[in-house]
Design goal:
Helix content: 10-25%
Structural class: alpha+beta
Oligomer: single chain
Distance between the termini: 32 Å
Largest sheet: 7 strands, antiparallel
Strand order of the largest sheet: 3-4-5-9-8-7-6
Length: 193
């Protein structure tokens, strides 16, 4: 039996290639973050065997039943009874031999109608090669997510972990629900193992 959060995650996040994983920055060659893997004071951490990522205060870590079977870890933030932001980690979502191949698979899994703002290299702690995909889409209003038509901004960070397994860290947030600064701190907190 699927829980409401599983439906919310599916609705807010859309499908990511074989399974489901808020970027405000546009395209370009700049690389946000230092790839430090540091966790800001007071934040929680999603831990998996291949990657970890911090989440801001106000987010709740979801149990395995709440996050769905394709996500290795997830946390979300609700406001007014609706989930307005979700952070997920997926492992092994595609067979890839490089960060570029993982990014292609991740980009292919972004929901139809989404606008991909760009893909670029990004520095993440623990890996020499990672990609960042920025995109936007309109919420469907289903399954407890933001009201229909709400702009949602997303970022996927992807590459290969030390066992050459593809990972994807995805952050989705209704516009205005996640600051640029917090988004960059999330990106900087990612540590690949």
């Amino acid at each position: 039996m699927k829980t409401r959060r599983t439906h919310v995650a599916a609705g807010l996040l859309s499908a990511l290639s074989l399974a489901c994983c808020a970027g405000l920055a546009g395209c370009g060659n700049s690389q946000p973050g230092s790839g430090s893997g540091s966790v800001p004071d007071g934040w929680g951490t999603l831990e998996t065997k291949g990657v970890s990522v911090a989440y801001p205060k106000g987010y709740d870590e979801w149990s395995a039943a709440e996050r769905g079977r394709h996500n290795a870890a997830a946390a979300g933030r609700a406001e007014g009874g609706r989930t307005v932001s979700v952070i997920t980690v997926q492992l092994g979502f595609t067979q890839a031999n490089s960060a570029e191949q993982a990014a292609i698979a991740a980009e292919a899994g972004i929901q139809m109608g989404a606008r991909v703002e760009g893909q670029r290299e990004v520095e993440l702690a623990g890996t020499d090669e990672a990609r960042r995909i920025d995109f936007t889409f309109k919420a469907t209003g289903e399954d407890g997510g933001p009201p229909r038509g709400t702009p949602v901004e997303g970022v996927i960070l992807t590459g290969l972990d030390s066992s050459d397994t593809a990972f994807a860290v995805r952050v989705d947030a209704a516009r205005g629900e996640l600051s640029d600064g917090d988004l960059e701190r999330i990106v900087e907190s990612v540590e690949v193992r």
